[in-house]
Amino acid sequence: MTNSFARGLIMLPDIAANIDAVRHEITRMCAHADVPENQPELIAVSKVQPLEKVRAALEAGHRVFGENRVQEAEERWGTLKPEYDGVILHLIGSLQTNKAADAVALFDVIQSVDRIKLARALAREMEKQSKSLPIYLQVNTGREDQKGGVLKEDLPALYNECKNLGLSVVGLMCIPPVGDDPSLHFALLKKFAKELGLERLSMGMSGDYALAAAMGATDIRVGTAIFGARDYA
User: Fold this and answer.
1) Reduced to 3 DSSP states, what percent helix, strand and coil does the chain have, rounded to the nearest 5?
2) ∠ CA 214-114-165, rounded to 5°
3) 20-42: burial string, b at 16+ Cβ within 10 Å, e else
4) Contact, 47 vs 68, CB < 8 A?
5) pTM attached to this predicted model
6) pLDDT digits (tens, 9 = 90+) for 147-184
7) Domains of the chain listed by start with CATH number
8) Termini Cα distance of the chain
9) Is 118 in a helix, a strand, or coil?
């Protein structure tokens, strides 16, 4: 064994152990906050991660993953998905309308619907492909110009249009601004969902997933806590 190969093995994190640790912390926080027994869905965010790390998660038995970009997801999961039974893919990144057909073909859940034009494009593609995917409406709780998501005042109109289009809206998703107290944004999302009669809340990432679990998240998106830091080089 060469030294470089040995170093590569050392640098590869124990994905299975990381998944177990995240799940344990979620369970602990749900118990601490007296959250109902149905555990949040753990979505392993595999964007930009090397294939060997994603395979390690699959070999550990994990089957729910999140991707940000349609093209990257196609390149990774076009070959991986047929190899492993039961894989569920969530699109958690922004989606352009010209990628709606590809997204409907590949993904099982779309979490980033934030405008009526996109909702209409997805409805057309689902009808063409005879598929009905659950969707989440992404809410820009921090009102950040550079971030996707519908503003709170436009949320009812987007929700009503999605329902009129026959889309299966199951919940809301948010990404709190960096530096803000995420609990404020989680509370807002929960309030908006209750007003619309929606049950699912996709909130919480590697830095705040335990808090999200305690505040009633049903879907938690964790990347670096499972796979380690991303290399964008």
Assistant:
1) 50, 15, 35
2) 110
3) eebbeebeebbeeeebeeeebbb
4) yes
5) 0.91
6) 899 999 999 999 999 999 999 999 999 999 999 999 99
7) 13-227 (3.20.20.10)
8) 27
9) helix
